[in-house]
């Protein structure tokens, strides 16, 4: 009988049992019981080239045993030489990368137990071992032309000083042996200046290409590090003076407008000459509903260590998520470090609000996983993931509810328990998109509706409700939004409810922290 073991969670063995002797004698007159282990069983029996694993057989009622090793790449560290051993404990060294099988054939005094099951008097076990190469990294890089096409490959060697025109992009690729679990780039003079990838991103292929726009004049280096925690391994590439950023005659562009600590951040395509900046050429306007504010600009200057980012300070004025903030530049003396003047612009701040709903749940891209029937009185209706009508991605949620034969309210309730708790005294904005196929008002209510509750208790729930869904234009996506603030920290439970004879689709659910400007 064969049994492949990649992970055995039955024992926590102290190797001190074997510190004084390599042989351990099982107590007599005990039932035959199969019990084996490896020192790396909790880590998928995975080691690096040159690594060691100890295998042990502490079964009771053993008559004989034989460990069988591959012909090459594996050797016994202590005890017998060759490709087999009869010892209770064997320590093996793995000198080649690849997949290896370590076999154990046992003969027992009687029929043996494996767990609670009784087998015959002989039993075979196979340990599967993965041996990884030492981590070894390599990179290549290619120019990206202004039209997005790819140009020549760069010379990847220390001191190569590949010339890159300021504000142009280079695409980096990498190769790796040894399955690094984490990758980290540092790009002198580049934007971004640092990029990291974790195991999930590496496996998803997100790390295969990394684009870097060079914004700072001068000579710059690239550092690339790959590592894994277990089996421990690391490799570092340092390519000093790989890049030389040279002057450009192309127009400087405003690539982004952000908010950083209540300041307006202007992200340009390349470095700005600090001495050329004048406060007088900028103005900022804040609009929030009927309120309009024209704050005083207290300072304008470069962000430390990021010469392509201009920060506009607004004194004591605080910026809120609900504000529409517009910055205007009237052409003046502001120019890049290579002498190109900035042109006029008027742009709004772009806000990166983080959706705290898991991406697959928010877009139903993992079908309806995680969404469960919530229960209610009357007629439950149905909900299911659908690819028939979607706003984005591949799925939406298809909902049907109906009125009962005796006029009961038709309800379809389904819930999702979020991993992220709602924080006390934090305002959240709740948004989803609704596509109503058909909707008939419920007889006793006189309307049909669709409601979403962010529920941590019945007395403290927000209702996002597009009233009278029967009035919606059929087969049209409509955005529904509301704000919610909890008085206490608690679990987030999203609860959808549909009333009346209604068929509809939901997609793109979003819950973000959203600061509202206080009303006076």
3D structure, described in words:
It comes from Sediminitomix flava. Residues 1-19 form the signal peptide. Keywords: Signal. The structure is a single chain. This protein has 520 residues and is mostly beta strands. It has four domains: 4-132, Immunoglobulin-like; 136-246, Immunoglobulins (Immunoglobulin-like), CATH 2.60.40.10; 254-348, Immunoglobulin-like; 359-513, Galactose-binding domain-like (Jelly Rolls, Sandwich), CATH 2.60.120.260. The protein is built from two helices and 41 strands. Strands 1, 3, 5, 7, 9 and 12 form a six-stranded mixed sheet that branches. Strands 14-13-16-20-18 form a five-stranded antiparallel sheet, with no helix packed on it. Strand 10 (113-114) and strand 11 form a beta hairpin. The longest helix is centred in the middle third of the chain and has 5 residues, at 199-203. It is flat and about 90 Å long. The model is unreliable at 1-28 (pLDDT under 50).
